[in-house]
């Protein structure tokens, strides 16, 4: 009886054990594919995050360089402006003196004539009341000094500033040339602090009848202070990406200008009650004191009462006592990564579902086979010989059932190609068909070159095979072609299967489509090079195109290059009156009108809040006429009323433009166009001005003025 029981139970125990081992192997393989796929996706997300962060840092570096340069250029303009104004005032004084001399010198004695000239200049004031005229003799004697009349008639040759510079001798030296005119730099006590000397620039010229030195000047910091509101406005208008902006603060934490929270300007954030903002402000100041660098901190977004995480680049401007901050909020990065995580989770769920289906089918079939085989074996066990034959048949069926494990091969997300030693395809999986469009029957017996896109040359494939033979494996990015002719990128891994003698038996290739990742990379490049509101090129694209075109011009001497600066007049009034939504609609319409005026070879850019730039090429013959026509066309288009729903908005613009001259770099051309724009606004706005030099700018009147008889 014992033997009978054992004989009856043995086949069932054996088959149940075999089924359990098969199911355990299938489960192990399923888990391996699941965790392997999840790990690969996690590595891709980590790599993507690092690449995005690197791109953000590069973007902040580029924007910071541009902003520092423009601020430096603005302060340089203050010195140039002071020199021009001092020269203009001195020339006016000399015109007055010459006029009086020509009229009265024959009627008055020399002493009376000199006294008349002195008194004619004594009470004249300019530069907001700070400026006055002084007269000195060539021997250093003061003739006219309105701020210290007690020194008139005395020699000032030995007067020195706090650097040891002899002031009077410097003035004499400035006119000791063939033009008998020039500039002199020195330091003197500031009107608002008679204990501290500050830099001063004076222009002097000789009054020939009496060989007098006549001149005037002003403190440089006064002109720089007059320029600061323009710098603050420039900082507020800088935008890059969707959330990139600039801010300017003092070294003690007071916010001077901000592109994201202008309503908080003037606040010292070191002492604000909110701990997160206060700690962030202190970290910014500490980073600036240590020479600057990158910093993660919390700050307000526009229109939000809750701080958000942002990455900032801190740059101290020690010579001004300022801290320049370029920041970009991390919401964009978070959204992109969240989308990728959702895509990854969806892919993993699909893989898990496929594996569960395959596992269920294999398990049910294994169970069915086990029950059937057990019953069959019990009924035939007594006849040993026949049972052996039947057992062989069942083993063949069991071997067939093992082929069900190929379901795992078929359910893999990655495409798989198995080829022989001659690289002829033996087998592919379902993912291969899904990715390439070829069925297994269409590619078996062929080489994988049927997928070649032709984008890689023969040297690429030679290097690939050399690496495969030397290392036994090759991994890399490659462009292949689907059955319908579409070229797509894929990540490919090829490994060798060798026998015991080391001879290659098979090549196994595993690949997956990386089109989505490529599209994301392209999206990031587009975000870095275009303005998100208008779709125009941004400042970074402008500088790249301008430098490239200038290099081409320097090499081939053609064509001509012109730069138009377009600034909307009183645009802030539109935002204040109608709201930023209408203001954004106006900016979009302005962009469309700019594009409609340009040729395909021209480039329209948005570089600030209401600031646009047009890069144009022109033929050298008749170039001025071409540029005036373009300037007039831009004016005509941009003064047309803007209509949005039931709102009609009248607007005007100022345009400054300049042409490139040999030897100039991109920043010199931009400075010329900017000076022409400044002159257009100075002449009353609503016009185009062509830059010729610092004083002689040719203006194109507004269309309304052009129609006036």
Q: What does the model show?
A:
This protein is of the alpha+beta class. Among the domains are: 238-329, PAS domain (Beta-Lactamase, 2-Layer Sandwich); 414-515, PAS domain (Beta-Lactamase); 530-707, Reverse transcriptase/Diguanylate cyclase domain (Alpha-Beta Plaits, 2-Layer Sandwich). The chain contains 18 helices and 24 strands. The strands form 5 sheets. Strands 6, 7, 8, 9, 10 and 11 form a 6-stranded antiparallel sheet that branches. Strands 18-19-17-22-23-24 form a 6-stranded mixed sheet, with helices on both faces. A 5-stranded antiparallel sheet has the order 2-1-5-4-3, sandwiched between helices. Helix 1 (2-104) runs antiparallel to helix 4 and helix 14 crosses helix 15 (580-597). It is elongated, with a radius of gyration of 40 Å. The N and C termini lie far apart (130 Å).
Helix and strand topology:
Layout: H1 2-104, H2 110-122, E1 134-137, E2 142-144, H3 167-174, E3 181-190, E4 193-207, E5 212-219, H4 220-237, E6 239-240, E7 244-250, E8 255-258, H5 275-289, E9 293-300, E10 307-317, E11 322-329, H6 331-380, H7 384-402, H8 406-411, E12 415-420, E13 425-428, H9 430-436, H10 440-443, H11 458-471, E14 473-481, E15 487-498, E16 504-513, H12 515-529, H13 539-556, E17 560-568, H14 571-578, H15 580-597, E18 603-606, E19 611-618, H16 623-638, E20 642-644, E21 647-649, E22 653-659, H17 666-682, E23 688-690, E24 698-700, H18 703-707
Parallel strand pairs: 22-23
Antiparallel strand pairs: 1-2, 1-5, 3-4, 4-5, 6-7, 7-8, 7-11, 9-10, 10-11, 12-13, 12-16, 14-15, 15-16, 17-19, 17-22, 18-19, 20-21, 23-24
Helix pairs in contact: 1-2, 1-4, 1-6, 6-7, 14-15, 15-16
